[in-house]
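hiii, so i know i said id send this last week but things got crazy w the move. better late than never?? heres the sequnce for the chain we talked about at the cafe, plus the structure i predicted for it. fair warning i was half asleep when i ran it
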Amino acid sequence: MDTVAAAQFNEDMKPLLEHADKQIVLGCERLEYISSTGLRLFLVLRKTVEQKGGSLVIYRINEELKNIFSITGFLNLFDIRS
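okay and structure toks below
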């Protein structure tokens, strides 16, 4: 998710944010790269979901992204599942 794709993801998140009081599941099996902008959008989604009492689950990130999430401390912030 580079900066251009992050802009589209931001638009795609709007309906999710309206229902952030529910469980939101993101399947990331096709996500091969994430920029700092993409990471920020994940944080925005997480914060909004938690404030509304919902939950966010991220499924199937690859090992390279797990490493990025680990380095940035995101592994401790998100519910990441295989």
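btw Residues 61 and 75 are 11 Å apart (CA to CA). thought thatd interest u
miss u guys!!
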